[in-house]
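Troubleshooting log. The previous structure file for this entry was overwritten by mistake, so regenerating from the original sequence record. Sequence copied from the archived sheet and checked twice against the printout by T.R.
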Amino acid sequence: MKLRMPILILTLTVFFTPLYAQDVTLTKGTPADVNMSAAILKAGVKLFEDAVEKDQLKGAVLLVARNGKVVSHEAIGWRNKEKKLPMKKDTMFRMASNTKALVATAISILADEKKLSFDDNVRNHIPSFDNYRSGYIKVRHLLSHTSGFRIHSLFIYPLMEKSPEHPNAPNLQLEVDRFGKIVADEFPPASYEYSNPGYNTLGALVEVVSGEKLEVFLKERIYKPLGMVDSYNHEIAEKLDGKLDRMSVVYYWNKSEGKWTIGWKPGDKPMLPLVRGSGGAICTTWDFAIVCQMFVNGGIYDGKRILKPETAEEMISKQSVLSPEKQKDYKKYYGFGWAIGENGVFSHSGSDGTFAWADPNTKVIGLVFTQSKEPPVKTGGILEFKQSLPAVFFALHFDIFSYRRLTYANR
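Regenerated output below.
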C-alpha cells in the first residue's frame, strides 16, 4: 500500500497551538478532541497490520497522544506467535536502550537534590576513575556520550565471579569499577560516541550516591510516583510480580535463513545476571508514555514533581552533536538520555524494537513498541512502510526511523 501525503495536508493535520508546560495527565480521547485526523491515524495502524500480515513484524503496540489525550492505542499481531497469544495493549516489552532516559532521570533527581552535580568528576564518587584521562570524566559527559570511553561492549567480559572477597559478584558496582581502570581514549569532553558502559556507570553512580540499588531507586522515585504499575528492570519471574506471561517473545531476523527466530521468551534466562543502566527496563506503552508526558509537562505528572522544570528542559536540550557520518538528512543531537532533533523533538529507541517520540511544541507523543528486532528491509516492503510511517501515523515532518536505524547501529 502506497501512502504519499502532500506537505500541505500534513501541515493541516495537526494545528500548532503552543501551550505552556502544565501538569497534563494521560486520558483516553478522540482525534477530534485534539485536532488530529482520525483517517490518517487509522491509515498508520493499517500499515502495521499489513506488515504483520506479510510477516515483516510479529506484532506491535502503538500509542499516540496529544495534549494528554490518547487518541490511538492499538495492539496488533502476536506477542507469542507459536502459542497463538495475541499482542495486547498491556503487553510488557524489553526496553533495551529506552532504559537510558530512566537512568538519566534518576541522575537528574539526585542533581536536583544536590547530592551530586552534572559537573562533578565521576572520580569524586567512584575512586577507580581517579586516574589519567578517566579522572576528567564528568557526570554530564556520561549523560551525553562524550566521556571519551571507547569500550564497545556492555561490560568487560567475563563478568566477575563470586569469591570470598566478592561474595555478591557479579553486580553493577563491581563491574563498573573495572571501567574506571581503563583510560579514556580521548580527553573529555570528547567527540560523541554512543556508550553503553557510560550509562552502566551512571547506574552505578545512582547506587553509590543514593545508597539504594538501581532498581529500588527507579521504582521508588520514578515508577511509583508516576503510577507506572507495569515497569521493572530485570526479566526474571521473581522480580515481575507474577506478570512474566504478559511479556512478549523477542524475535530476531535471521538474515542467512531469511526467517524470524526466537531470541528470548518468557521464562528464559535474563540477558545478564544483574540490573544495568544501559538497558534492561521492562515497560508497557502506557507506562512509558507517562514518562514522555512528564517531560512534555516540564518534569511533573499528576501532581508529582519528579524534576525541576529547568532540569527537565536541560535533559531534552542539545548537549552533544552526533558524529558527521550520522548526519544524513538533518542534524541530530543527544541530550541526557534522549536523542534530540533539530526541531526539539526528543526520542529514543531500544534494540529489541521499542521506540518513543515526543514533541514538546505540538504536545504530540508517539510510541511504537515491537519485539521484532531489525525487521527485514526490502524495496517496496518494510522500507516503504518505515518511510511512510512518520508522515502517516504521526502526521508530522519527522523521520523517526532514522533515529531507530541509528540506535540499532550503536547496540
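The radius of gyration is 21 Å. Archived copy saved in two places this time.
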